[in-house]
C-alpha cells in the first residue's frame, strides 16, 4: 500500500501549489455496476475500513457503490486498491480533497435500494446516460447559446454556489427532479441540455431520465463540480461561490479547501457569513431558515443543550449528554444526506 501521489485522480499539478493540503484526505467515489451479494461486500468493506481507521459513508445497492470517506493518504490509497481487487469496481475513480481534520465522526457502510435516490426503478445509467463532457471542455459547452445548463442538486446547494447562468430545479431532495422536468422542460424547446452535480452521480440518473423523456442532446460534467474545481485554473473557472459538501466542512472553496459556510444545528441548512449576522441566528439553536418554525419544546431543548455546552467549556470538560446529542444530530444529518443526494 502506497500513499496518494499527484496523478490522474489527485489535484491537477498546476493547481497543487495554491491548495492547502492537510493531513486528512477526503475521497468521493461511485460506480454504477451490477452488484450482487451486497451484504457480503458490505461486510468486507466495513472490516477493511475499520482496519484503516477510515470514516465516512459508503452505500451499496444492486446498481453499484457510492461513497465519501476520509483518512490518511495511505488508507485512501489502500481503499482504492482494495476495491479494485473486485473486478466490478475496476478503474473506480476517486476525487480527492484535503483537510486538517476528518470531516466525519464515524463510519457507515450500508445497503440501500439505490446508491442515489431518484425513486424510478426503470432509470438505469448502465443502459442509458448522457454524454460525458470533460472539465476541460465544459466552458465551451456553457458558452454555446443553445445550451441550457441545469444544476441537478437541491436548492440549498445551488444557493451556496453554482455555474454562472445555470438554472435550479428548486428541489429539496433529488427524487423531486422528475417533477421539475415534467413541469418546466420541453424536449421540443430545450434541445441541448448540460447537467452537473457535486461528483457526477446524480447526473448519471438525471440525464438517463431526460433521454427517456425524449430530450435529444443531454450532456453531463464528467467528475462533477469537484473534478472541475480540481483541474480548472481560477482565471478560467465559471464557478461562482462555494460547493456544498455533505460533511462537517459544509462547503469547499474553488481550491477545494474548507469553505466559509457553517451549518445550523436545528435544520442543517448551510449558513453564509451574512446569514450568521441575522438576529434570527442563534448558535446551537436556530437560524433565519428555521427560527420561526421551532416549537417551544425544541427551543427549550436546544437552549438547554447550549447552556450545558457553555458550562462544560468553562469547566474544561465535555457537557452532560454530549455524545448523545452529537449522535442524534449526526443521525439527522446522515438521513438528510442520503435522502438529498
Automatic annotation (TrEMBL):
Record keywords: Oxidoreductase, Transferase, tRNA processing
EC number: 1.14.-.-
Coiled coil (UniProt feature): none
Protein's gene: trhO
Reactions mediated catalytically: uridine(34) in tRNA + AH2 + O2 = 5-hydroxyuridine(34) in tRNA + A + H2O
Family listed: Belongs to the TrhO family.
Alphabetized SMART domains for the sequence: RHOD
Record protein name field: tRNA uridine(34) hydroxylase
Record function comment: Catalyzes oxygen-dependent 5-hydroxyuridine (ho5U) modification at position 34 in tRNAs.
Signal sequence, start to end: none
GO MF entries: oxidoreductase activity, acting on paired donors, with incorporation or reduction of molecular oxygen; transferase activity
GO biological process: tRNA modification
Superkingdom of this protein's organism: Bacteria
Keyword Ligase: no
Keyword set includes Oxidoreductase: yes
CDD domains given in the database record: RHOD_YceA
Region (Disordered), start-end ranges: 313-341
A Pfam family this chain is assigned to: Rhodanese
Rhodanese domain location: 143-237
The protein's enzyme class: oxidoreductase
